[in-house]
Amino acid sequence: MSSDNAKKMAAEAALEYVKPGSVVGVGTGSTVNFFIDALASMKHDIDGAVSSSEASTERLRQHGIAVFDLNGVPELELYVDGADEINRHRQMIKGGGGALTREKIVAAVAKTFICIADDSKQVTALGDFPLPVEVIPMARSYVARQIVKLGGDPVLRENFKTDNGNVILDIYNLNIGKPIELEEKLNQITGVVTNGLFAARSADIALISDGKTVTTLKN
Ligand SMILES: O=C[C@H](O)[C@H](O)[C@H](O)COP(=O)(O)O
């Protein structure tokens, strides 16, 4: 598939930013899977990785890359992850795979966040992709009612539990005109663990590919 080729090109371009002897923060998803496969070629040069999901941990370990607990890693130079949508400010919607909370934690620790994506993820305004919100199970109905008050249509992701044992509400039809404000507002609802807006902490660099070339977006 051509989008797979674009994902692979963006993922491989991120290798350039991996420093020998470092621990690399690794995200989750189909684009990141290409990054993990590419990172395997550097497994003897890096110390190992910190992972944002059980799925990525398994793939990293299959390649023989050591995976460390984030609590034992005081500093992280680099975090590489995909996105469901990314705008020109490199703000993103993430969590299509349900890994948003661990992703946001690793992104918070990392000095540099690189988003890798095929060009179908680039948008002028965030919000066509339903915004994932991770919720403590007993709070699901309350949180859904609060989201309706904000103008969104929350839908429970069926037969899905996050790596943290929580549920996901996917919010449709939400106005994301002010991403940073909305990210904070949603996180203030009791019972919300976090939401998939990565606006307050956007990507520092985006590597976007159309399958032929890779474009680098940064300040
Ligand atoms: O929870 C999943 C992550 O936020 C992914 O980074 C995001 O869904 C993009 O995944 P993919 O690279 O498969 O499109």
Report on the architecture of this protein:
This protein has helices spanning about 1-15, 30-40, 55-60, 100-110, 140-150, 180-185, and strands spanning about 25, 50, 65-70, 75-80, 85, 90-95, 110-120, 130-135, 155, 165-170, 190-195, 195-200, 205-210, 215-219. It is an alpha/beta fold and about 220 residues long. It has two domains: about 1-125 and about 200-219, 3-Layer(aba) Sandwich (Rossmann fold), CATH 3.40.50; about 130-195, ACT domain (Alpha-Beta Plaits), CATH 3.30.70.260. The strands form three sheets. It has a seven-stranded mixed β-sheet with strand order 3-2-1-4-7-13-14, sandwiched between helices. Strands 9-10-8-11 form a four-stranded antiparallel β-sheet. Helix 1 crosses helix 2. The model has no long low-confidence stretch (mean pLDDT about 95). The structure holds ribose-5-phosphate. Ribose-5-phosphate (R5P) binds near residues 83 and 96. The site of ribose-5-phosphate (R5P) has 17 residues, from helix 2 and helix 4. It catalyses: aldehydo-D-ribose 5-phosphate = D-ribulose 5-phosphate.
